[in-house]
Amino acid sequence: MASMNMIQAINSALDVTMGRDPDIVVFGEDVGYFGGVFRCTAGLQKKYGKTRVFDTPIAEGGIVGTAIGMGAYGLRPVIEIQFADYIYPAFDQLVSEAARLRYRSGGGFHAPLTVRAPCGGGIFGGQTHSQSPEAIFTHVCGLKTVMPSTPYDAKGLLIAAIEDDDPVIFLEPKRIYNGPFDGHHERPLTPWAKHPAGEVPEDYYRIELGQASIVRPGAQLTVLAYGTMVHVCLAAAEEAGVDAEVIDLRSLVPLDLDTIARSVQKTGRCVIAHEASRTGGFGAELMAQVQEACFWHLEAPIERVTGWDTPYPHAFEWTYFPGPARVAKAMKNVVEA
Amino acid sequence: MASMNMIQAINSALDVTMGRDPDIVVFGEDVGYFGGVFRCTAGLQKKYGKTRVFDTPIAEGGIVGTAIGMGAYGLRPVIEIQFADYIYPAFDQLVSEAARLRYRSGGGFHAPLTVRAPCGGGIFGGQTHSQSPEAIFTHVCGLKTVMPSTPYDAKGLLIAAIEDDDPVIFLEPKRIYNGPFDGHHERPLTPWAKHPAGEVPEDYYRIELGQASIVRPGAQLTVLAYGTMVHVCLAAAEEAGVDAEVIDLRSLVPLDLDTIARSVQKTGRCVIAHEASRTGGFGAELMAQVQEACFWHLEAPIERVTGWDTPYPHAFEWTYFPGPARVAKAMKNVVEA
Amino acid sequence: MTSSAHEPGAALRLHVPEPKARPGEVPDFSGMSVPPAGTLARPPIDADEPALREYPYALIRVLDDAQRAVGPWAPALTPERLRAGLRHMMLTRAFDDRMLRVQRQGKTSFYMKSTGEEAVAVAQAYALDDGDMLFPSYRQQGLLIARDWPLVDLMCQIFSNPGDRLKGRQLPVMYSVPEKNFFSISGNLGTQFPQAVGWAMASAIKGDTRIAASWVGDGTTAEGDVHYALTFAAVYQAPVLLNVVNNQWAISSFQGFAGGERTTFAARAIGYGVPGLRVDGNDFLAVYAVTQWAAERARRNYGPTLIELVTYRAAAHSTSDDPSAYRPQDEAARWPLGDPVERLKQHLIGLGAWSEAQHEALARELEEHVKAQLREAEALGTLGTPPAGVESLFEDVFKDMPPHLQRQLAELKGA
Amino acid sequence: MTSSAHEPGAALRLHVPEPKARPGEVPDFSGMSVPPAGTLARPPIDADEPALREYPYALIRVLDDAQRAVGPWAPALTPERLRAGLRHMMLTRAFDDRMLRVQRQGKTSFYMKSTGEEAVAVAQAYALDDGDMLFPSYRQQGLLIARDWPLVDLMCQIFSNPGDRLKGRQLPVMYSVPEKNFFSISGNLGTQFPQAVGWAMASAIKGDTRIAASWVGDGTTAEGDVHYALTFAAVYQAPVLLNVVNNQWAISSFQGFAGGERTTFAARAIGYGVPGLRVDGNDFLAVYAVTQWAAERARRNYGPTLIELVTYRAAAHSTSDDPSAYRPQDEAARWPLGDPVERLKQHLIGLGAWSEAQHEALARELEEHVKAQLREAEALGTLGTPPAGVESLFEDVFKDMPPHLQRQLAELKGA
Ligand SMILES: Cc1ncc(C[n+]2csc(CCOP(=O)(O)OP(=O)(O)O)c2C)c(N)n1
Ligand SMILES: Cc1ncc(C[n+]2csc(CCOP(=O)(O)OP(=O)(O)O)c2C)c(N)n1
Ligand SMILES: [Mg+2]
Ligand SMILES: [Mg+2]
């Protein structure tokens, strides 16, 4: 066990898997010599050589396109998109190609790539360094979409994603790279070193995709969240004084509907939180599935707490961010409804 | 008034607006001399000249990118993406640029483009000529998303879209270009000439974006649909013998929540239908909004009838397509629940 | 343009390309330069790109007007091999003709012919090794035919019948044949180009000896993926052949809308420091020779080559298309580079290795072969015969079926 | 590569580019050819692209080693105009230096300098008309400064304060100034390139006389949008200048990762049949002359030009970057093309139109000016001072606020 922040945990996942499987290659903009603008690939080129860890042209579509070809060859590419906001030039290769290759070829070819991309706001990155685009991927059949909330989970989930034979979009909430940010931006950040999930085994382990984690058991209300919002919701539950059961989804597709439904059937109440903008966000799908699976148990309307339906603004970032006050208010609404 | 199919109604909308506004330009792959693979732009180049109606390179990103620049200049581009399935190479220009230009420039620049794209399946087009990608656009703040279900609506909505100062994604369900297809693929298609909404004024008229239309009033159940599925739901209501109130949304963003909520609060029951795949489809957002606005009125779980979470398969297209039998079954479930 | 458009202060004007002739007009290829065969040198395979800058503007041709093989590019192919090539081209054509009829009969939904372009696929397949990986567009069925893949398998795909190994999921002609190192064809134009580069990079990473090749049409060169492919291929010196099949048309748009008015598609290569070769695409021997040069170059770690194959799409774009609406009906007949089958046939006759009688006999034999294969395929069903059980609809979305798809499958079965 | 990699049957190998020097090593520009100034002809503005094919491989230079203007490209600029240019470059540099300090003081979140590249923006702005539309990247602040836009306005944007006309929505330096025909800068690389082409096409459609210009970095050339821009510009002969600012680095990646190892970025133009000019980007006069040539060409309906401006990013990529981790610290100092400010200064001194004393006085004056502007901007607040009421968060998503945003605004206000 070692104390790791999320960057180190991701680096460790890459290191451990690359050591085990010579077919894993890592590439992307600035990931080679420099080790990535967030340092997630630091040291890997030195250790595994320039042909397994390398820089690329600034062409996200080319990065994904070549990765698909490498996957068809038999390699297992793990690519970095520097910011999730810059994944759109690769959208066609992801949606039309990676996601459908196995299906359209009758299982003859597949693209076992892992696409890592830092996502989310709260770092004064403005509209192009803050986005959470998970919902556009969860709508695409053939892609898996994962977002961790702790270093421990990040490593175990990333290893499972890399070893997965399907394409996985692995979104890393950069606001929690260094510590479990709870939305109180006015307070100093607690580092991961002080959090139990900052203790990470140095060796290999997997967290299977599709298994949610109940991070706070509770009786009054079910809260569904992922990424940074898990910590915001935990803080909000304390502040609202609500006995919330907080579920960290970890993987959005595949989704652990069993865990979700069991909890909502128990509590009868549900709040869903995400940082992405509201309309058509993954919260809509969660609300739909909860409604479908738990309608007769629901005692109050489900509420969503989300980013607003606007781009992520630079100066108003804390007005945009669905912080603990907004989540707490929704919790109270739902509990008192 | 003239009898028009949807292709002719779209052509007429383009013709009428181009005649009124010299700043409207129309371009896309094969839209110039040839008049478009679905003939929607037939005759326009001859009438308005090669610099207002022209063919383009096969580069959807370039088509949208140049259209944004033209919009910034002061033109009003109406572009065609040959199939909605081929819009993804333009995704970055749509999401990062067209949708955010007004916001990020503080209102200094905007991109008043209209993106026409034939969508939907049921023509044995396989996975790359059948998609309904509306949900990935409805999640993008700054875009409007429209889908007509009749020639009359298509013309009025397209004129409103072209005149709109915001970017509009205008999806044309190609299965109903020639007639109101109700999902009974085994029967011959009734042409638009036999449908009241196939009577279309030759002159200018607008249907404002954001206004749903109640195409069948009813008391037992509210059905939310758009595009081809409107006709499928009407057929299903007859077949199920359910007194359904069928609402044609027409515009997804902006959404006419008032009309929707009023209806569901009256009926207490709701079925949502779309052809796109289920997870993260626009149906999820509809279900969320209905749940939020009408929870205390709901007497049964809302049901979704949608395409399956798979690519659109060539041979199994009628297994994939959410036809009247599946919709009727959902209606009965919800009414009997 | 009149000169006033160029005077200081003149109003700007948009140039919109226009082909030389439209329906009802006389086809006009006068602007196209067709240099004599055999005049261009064959550079060493390790030549640096700067030494090759004339090639994108030239046209490598081996067969002269009398269909004799001339000049340094003439490949050393035995008459047996040439006859085999002729046979594969003729088989491709017979297959295309039959499949068009089958589609017209309503037995399938869609078909795309490669008529007039058979030399591209067949000669290129001949110049590559069987282990080399092919990332084709939808118009290189000849690659599979040249690799002796059974027609019945292609037909079953076209019919989406129970013999279709793609389980009825793909539009007809979107084959995928791992056994023949033939990658799954995509309906999305150009996407295969960077994928081929990635495959080639992987082969280089692993110290393999197999190279990759990919094909796009003239129209498709405008897609970003083509730029990505060239950039990555150049940067990493990937062992890959990037082929642009310039058949003059992209549905209704002539190649001027992809930039062909101002320069050649082979010239694109120059911008990346990659060799660009331009070849008479209807000249089996020239296509073979150029491909063989580029393949050897790639295999010896001298990096990628872009090849423009100049040919003509003699048939409609697809069964959904009617070219008489946008180009003169007799344009194909007037195409200056002739017909690839006819040219190779005459070459063989000139060699004394073939005769009209043999040719006719072969044509009949191939037609019979196609018919026999068709009977076999039709026996398994045509469009409408379910290719598999409905559960196959939910298979292969992921390697293992996740719970939500299991639920949907149950829902479907319950319906 | 050893020769064994090229033997028949050899294993393939992946080439991964590597810059000449890394931290701790001696900077090495020996591979870079710096031809003498004044040797290249200035072609007529209506020259066809084939006549211009040497230019992408050359380097147009006007200022010689003694900073005298020599050769046919030397522009006729008065000493007043040159002094104005020097002033605008120095102002850009003083502004950058101050803003970096301001960011270090925590008054804003982010900043990007253009140090060493000032000639690109300032000389190009000078060579264009004020009505011409600019589609810049984030490193051409000099364009706005050369068009005499008040620094205080830029500073307010950087501070996201109530003076920010972008209402605090954009990352610092992502200016948008319609009054100066300066398009909204995007955080997404390359997207402005086809937009500029579209604007130019619109100008041509309307018979206007205004042209467009756009800028991308060397790294950005790999994006598909750059290919789209070149394709559309070539096909429609759009009146547009497409500039590639090759400052050698894209964050930590040297220009070899964009393809610069094999050829020049100007050479990309050749592939589209578009003229490509390569210019010493630190030579104010050469940049002016080349831009002026291309602008006149565009304005007279002879179509687009691609210009590669060879320069060096002397500062960090941004305030989030530390270049000492990936390149030698003294690389900027060893850059063979020198510093643009110093070179123009020496040129003016050589003309007898400037002196060291004047230069020093001007530097002080500009520093004072920047400080005064800063005081004005800071008086309106720095990051953290709300730029407007919260309703502005919901404005401008659409022209009119739709019901769902009105509901969200109400929700926010109620919260
Ligand atoms: C991304 C994308 N855009 C548009 C289309 C529609 N489309 C199919 S084929 C075609 C023309 C392609 O022309 P070309 O590349 O010259 O190939 P050819 O058909 O001549 O072999 C078009 C526009 C598509 N399939 N994919
Ligand atoms: C589409 C996209 N991908 C990645 C980035 C992240 N990024 C910002 S600047 C930069 C480097 C750009 O280098 P270059 O084009 O050479 O311009 P320079 O910074 O040198 O002026 C990168 C990779 C981005 N902003 N947009
Ligand atoms: Mg073609
Ligand atoms: Mg750079």
> What gyration radius of chain C follows from the Cα positions, in whole Å?
22 Å
- Strands of chain C, total number: 7
Radius of gyration of chain A, taken over Cα atoms and rounded to an integer in Å = 19 Å
The amount of beta strand of chain A, in percent, is: 15-25%
Run of helices and strands of chain A? EHEHEHEHHEHEHEEEEHEEHEHEHH
Strand order of the largest sheet of chain C: 1-2-3-7-6
Beta fraction of the residues of chain C? 5-15%
> How do the strands line up in the largest sheet of chain A?
3-2-4-5-7-6-12
Oligomer: heterotetramer
Based on secondary structure, the structural category of chain C is alpha/beta
The helix fraction of chain A, in percent, is 25-40%
The profile of the biggest β sheet of chain A is: 7 strands, mixed
The largest β sheet of chain C comes out as: 5 strands, parallel
What would you say this structure looks like, in words?
The complex is a heterotetramer, with two copies of chain A (337 residues) and two copies of chain C (415 residues). Chain A is an alpha/beta fold. In chain A, 35% of the residues lie in helices and 18% in strands. Chain A has helices at 6-20, 44-48, 60-73, 91-98, 101-104, 134-138, 151-163, 228-240, 257-267, 282-294, 317-320, 324-336, and strands at 2-3, 24-28, 53-55, 76-80, 114-119, 144-146, 168-173, 199-200, 213-216, 221-225, 244-248, 251-253, 270-277, 303-307. Chain A has a seven-stranded mixed sheet, sandwiched between helices. In chain A, helix 7 links the parallel strand 6 (144-146) and strand 7 (168-173). Chain A is globular. In chain A, 74% of the residues are buried. The mean pLDDT of chain A is 98. Chain C starts with 78 loop residues before the first helix and ends with a helix. Chain C has 415 residues and is an alpha/beta fold. Chain C has helices at residues 79-104, 118-127, 141-146, 151-159, 192-205, 224-236, 284-299, 340-351, 356-379, 403-414; strands at 133-135, 212-217, 240-246, 249-250, 253-254, 276-280, 305-310. In chain C, helix 1 (79-104) packs across helix 2 (118-127) and helix 1 crosses helix 9 (356-379). In chain C, strands 1-2-3-7-6 form a five-stranded parallel sheet, with helices on both faces. Chain C has a two-stranded antiparallel ribbon with strand order 4-5. The mean pLDDT of chain C is 97. In chain C, helix 7 links the parallel strand 6 (276-280) and strand 7. Helices cover 34% and strands 7% of the residues of chain C. The complex binds thiamine diphosphate (TPP) (2 copies) and magnesium ion (2 copies). One thiamine diphosphate sits between chains D (139, 187-189, 216-220, 245, 247, 249-251, 313, 317) and A (29, 58, 82, 86, 89).
